[in-house]
Write a structure and sequence with these properties.
Radius of gyration: 31 Å
Mean pLDDT: 85
Low-confidence stretches: none
Order of helices and strands: HHH
Structural class: mainly alpha
Number of strands: 0
Shape: rod-shaped
Distance between the termini: 75 Å
Number of helices: 3
Protein name: Katanin p60 ATPase-containing subunit A1-like
InterPro entries: KATNA1_MIT
Largest sheet: none
């Protein structure tokens, strides 16, 4: 097992998480956890190293869970249908143009164009 590969993949997972690319980060974290699990299987005779790697695996698993939570929260915002929307009163909100003979009408301001009938 290549320890530099574990280190590099952990670094990449953290970096992607910092950049907000949570899905890619999760892939790296999953890979690192699998690599550490394989390493632990090969360290049967060295209890001290095995214990250190178990602690590292636990810490990385906690980071991975946080990244998953961030991703789930972000996705909840993106797909939230619980947003309150104003209820339409059915009243048209189109502005009413002042009449030409209206004394409050500014002669320098053109009225809006008349709608085209189809």
């Amino acid at each position: 097992m290549d320890l530099s590969e574990i280190s590099e993949n952990t670094k990449m997972g953290r970096e992607y998480a910092l950049l907000g690319n949570y899905e890619t980060s999760q892939v790296y974290y999953q890979g690192v956890l699998q690599q550490i699990q394989k390493l632990l299987m090969s360290l049967r005779s060295d209890a001290a190293k095995k214990q250190k790697w178990q602690r590292a695996r636990q810490q990385i698993a906690q980071e991975y869970e946080l990244v998953k939570q961030y991703s789930n929260t972000l996705n909840a915002f993106k797909t939230s249908d619980n947003v309150e929307r104003p209820i339409s009163s059915g009243i048209s909100r189109q502005p009413v143009a002042p009449r030409r003979d209206d004394p409050s009408r500014d002669p320098d301001v053109w009225p809006p164009p008349t709608p085209v009938e189809r």
